[in-house]
Design a protein that fits this description.
By secondary structure, the chain is an alpha+beta fold. It is built from eleven helices and 13 strands.
């Protein structure tokens, strides 16, 4: 059995569908054919039974006295019972004695039913059965009770008999055999036709799958993610859904690859500047050592400071790239937990005050608890504050407020032009007016990514009297949940 199942599973899906359809149709046709055969058989037997009833007609026991008196000799008159050609008629006594009608072609084999009916006569009940005659021919037999005065037992004493009449089943069996042959032929043709139709339907139904397979093979062979499978707009079947899913998948993969290539190109461009500066400074220092011509101490200190600054910029850029290389799915790495956001903001404010000691930073922070990755959330807040510090004029003011899950950071700098606002969260994008300032152009994109992973949103907008307002909204609550905060997956 297991070998048959394995062989079936190894067949192509078209062949399996065709076989399944053929098997289902064969089962249905077989069930219908067998049912039809039995129904026809029942109808034919009912007709024979009616013929047997009509052949006997109303039974009057006095008509059978002469037959009983002459038994077992065959009398000369037929008595009108079982008088059809090739018909059978006889009386059976309780002890098994048989009295044949003169018109009977042969004796019907006596059964236990015949004797039982003779022992307990009920003239209102007829018993029908299949039987045979003494020559072995198959018969349809009807048995009914009959009480006849039998002088052979004792003068004037009545004896119980069963009246047995029968008709041959040869013609009926021939009809049933022909019907069975016809049904068998029709069933065979139906199964073959169903198999062919199933194969045709499987080919037609799996044609979109063939297209999908060809598209997948083409993508695997050429890495061309621009392949699309045409789908009818009003089609909602499973194949259409699969095609839509494939198209969506290739679109997402193409977009991901484009973003990856763009990230690599942008990262290469951003890395080129500090690396070039580093190489230039190191070459100057190396040439000074090789030629023995020392660089003035002030210039030497400036070169080393530049090297240190460029290394710091490279380290920051590499850290930002590592952050962006992590998966874009929310709740990544299983490191999210309940975080006291107000404590995170206070920590970021302390760092911002150290970086901008000449600035006035005011804060109003209310308790708010969120589910996020603590380190990433603190870095996002630090990046927002760093931007405010970077673009604030000397002696300027920064206003920070956290209330009901909304963090606003408002600076009084020169602001962001309206045409640049749609690009502020793009990777490596930097305002033309800010390219002289330190930074990699990844800070705000990291902020947007972290906030989205925490289920919130971030935006930048111009302030009414100059400057910029950064707004971060995160879902949470003003009180922590009752359970102990723990990392969740």
């Amino acid at each position: 059995m297991n070998k048959v199942v394995r062989r079936f599973r190894s067949l192509p899906i078209r062949s399996r569908l065709a076989l399944l359809v053929a098997a289902a149709v064969a089962f249905a046709v077989a069930a219908v054919s067998v049912t039809c055969w039995f129904i026809v058989q029942g109808k034919l037997y009912d007709e024979i039974d009616e013929d047997l009833k009509s052949s006997v007609g109303p039974v009057r026991p006095d008509e059978f006295r002469d037959l009983v008196a002459a038994c077992p000799q065959t009398p000369s008159d037929a008595l009108g019972v079982g008088s059809r050609p090739k018909s059978y008629g006889q009386l059976v006594r309780a002890d098994g004695k048989v009295c044949l009608f003169p018109s009977s072609t042969a004796q019907v084999q006596v059964s236990g039913v015949d004797k039982t009916v003779a022992k307990a006569p009920d003239p209102n009940v007829q018993h029908f059965r299949d039987g045979t005659d003494t020559d072995g021919a198959k018969l349809r037999v009807m048995t009914t009770a009959l009480v006849v005065k039998d002088d052979s037992l004792r003068p004037g004493v009545a004896a119980d008999y069963s009246l047995v009449v029968a008709l041959p089943l040869k013609g009926t069996q021939s009809t049933l055999n022909e019907l069975a042959l016809i049904l068998l032929l029709v069933s065979g043709v139906g199964v073959l036709g169903a198999g062919a139709a199933g194969l045709a339907v499987a080919r037609a139904g799996l044609r979109p799958v063939d297209k999908l397979t060809e598209a997948v093979e083409h993508v695997a062979r050429t890495e061309d993610l621009n392949v699309r499978i045409p789908v009818e707009d009003d089609s909602e079947d499973e194949i259409a859904r699969l095609s839509h899913s494939f198209n969506s998948m290739t679109s997402a993969l193409a977009s991901s690859r484009d973003l990856q290539q763009q990230l690599i190109a942008d990262a290469g461009h951003e890395l080129r500047t500090p690396l070039t500066s580093l190489r230039t400074n190191i070459e100057l220092l190396t040439r000074s050592e090789e030629t023995g011509r020392p660089i003035p101490e002030a210039d030497r200190k400036a070169l080393l400071a530049s090297v240190k600054a460029q290394m710091t910029e490279l380290a920051a850029l590499i850290g930002d790239l590592q952050e962006l290389s992590r998966p874009d799915t929310g709740q990544h790495s299983g490191r999210t937990q309940i975080v006291a956001w107000h404590d995170t903001v206070e920590s970021a404010l302390r760092r911002a005050r150290l970086r901008g000691p000449e600035l006035t930073i005011t804060a109003g922070v209310e308790p708010w608890f969120v589910r996020a990755e603590p380190t990433a959330l603190e870095r996002a807040v630090v990046n927002i504050l760093d931007n405010a510090v970077k673009f604030s004029p000397e002696g300027g003011r920064i206003e920070v407020r956290l209330a009901e899950g909304v963090l606003t950071v408002r600076d009084h700098g020169r602001g962001i032009p309206a045409d640049e606002l749609p690009h502020v969260f793009d990777r490596f994008w930097r305002s033309p007016s800010a390219r002289a300032l330190p930074g990699s152009g990844l800070g705000l994109s990291i902020v947007a990514r972290t906030v989205q992973q925490a289920g919130g949103d971030v935006s930048l907008s111009p302030a009414e009297d100059g400057g910029t307002v950064a707004t971060i909204r995160l879902p949470g609550a003003s009180v922590p949940p009752p359970e102990t905060p723990a990392a969740t997956s």
